[in-house]
Amino acid sequence: MNATILLLGSGELGKEFAISAKRLGCRVVAVDRYADAPAMQVADAHEVIDMLDGAAIRRVAKRHKPHFIVPEIEAIRTGELLQLEKAGFSVVPSAFAAHMTMNRDAIRDLAARELGLPTARYAYAASAEALEAAILDKAGTGLPCVVKPTMSSSGKGQSVVRTKADIAKAWKCAVTNMRGDRRVVIVEQFIDFDYEITLLTVKQRRSQGGGTLFVEPIGHRQERGDYQESWMPCPMKPAVKRSAQRMAKAVVERLAGPDGAGIFGVEFFVKGDRVIFSELSPRPHDTGMVTLRSQDLSEFDLHVRAILGLPIPAIRYNGPTASAVVLATRDSERAPSYSGIDKAMAISSVEVRIFGKPTTRKHRRMGVVLAHGATATAARKTAMKAAAKISVR
């Protein structure tokens, strides 16, 4: 295709996206705030900048003159993306989508107030005192509840508040681990859901005759607000799945506009027959790593095809599949090494992907294990068993 893509964020999702893009002839420039990020290892060129520095983003865009600017993380100076789009750059899926989803308050208000989607009861707070009031006041969320930075990723800064004594600790956790520079948190009513899903939603350009497509729902489990395992298929009643698809289509088409294109990871809680909107990312989703084995077109392939305006035929699924993460156990600035990969790969159907991150943090995702099984439950057991054999040192 000879398209140049400026990839803003170069983690493990960016790495897989870059591989899919290069398979179709694209030139990829990987950008992140640290050197030797995973996507930089497979890209044609790279840049290391402060991602919250709008002037730096503009300089990089003018230097490389990309056909598409593709954000891969939340912590970007998205106001600059709005300006770049006005200047004629194509931002994926749209600068508006990136700007709105950078902050949980913006996307939650759009979903709940503008579109009327069912969500958990929520409020915002810009101080520990305001957080306490948002929880304990008569009209507050009550206890237990969940506190998150409005700008974050991969569960950083998220905690569950069960008692009044937890509130100050939750505020400190949120502002210490937030991405960006807005000291604002969102507090949400705790929902005792039956399960949660990611609905990967592919928006194609209307001008190219494309519609909105859905990958089959992905079940997932989180700890500390961060994904630990995901699986397909995730059994849902047909009416419940249709409800999730209607909600996902409404929010995705509002964010992308008629000619925005790309994949969105839309998260829902499911309680009985109720579907409750949770969060949204305008890019491939970490729980969607399972699609590297579950089907013929991964979420990264789908993202690239939508961006380039290429056809997306019916997805062919490969049967029950699961993913399980490989985590670091401590902080280290030294290059990590791995043991047990051979033991994991000795298990039938298992595939291991090491991301290539140059340093570790406690609980940081360093790799993922993918596995098949006769059922989703069997695939999950295999993936978790294999992941447990791998150690990060």
Average of the residue pLDDT scores: 95
How far the N terminus sits from the C terminus, by CA atoms, comes to 41 Å
Helix content: 25-40%
Describe the oligomeric state of these chains in a short phrase.
single chain
* Strand content bin: 25-35%
Give start-end ranges of low-pLDDT stretches.
Answer: none
- What is the count of structural domains? 4
Bulk shape? globular
Biggest sheet architecture: 9 strands, antiparallel
Named at the architecture level, the CATH assignment of the largest domain is 2-Layer Sandwich
Number of strands: 19
What is the CATH H-level superfamily of the largest domain?
ATP-grasp fold, B domain
- The chain-level structural class is alpha+beta
Question: How would you portray this structure in words?
Answer:
The structure is a single chain. The mean pLDDT is 95. The chain is built from twelve helices and 19 strands. It is globular. Helix 2 crosses helix 3. The strands form four sheets. Strands 9, 10, 11, 12, 13, 14, 15, 17 and 18 form a nine-stranded antiparallel sheet that branches. A four-stranded parallel sheet has the order 3-2-1-4, sandwiched between helices. It has four domains: 88 residues, Rossmann fold, CATH 3.40.50.20; 69 residues, 2-Layer Sandwich (Dna Ligase, domain 1); 127 residues, ATP-grasp fold, B domain (D-amino Acid Aminotransferase, Chain A, domain 1); 74 residues, D-amino Acid Aminotransferase, Chain A, domain 1 (2-Layer Sandwich). Strand 11 and strand 12 form a beta hairpin. The protein is an alpha+beta fold and 393 residues long. The N and C termini lie far apart (41 Å).
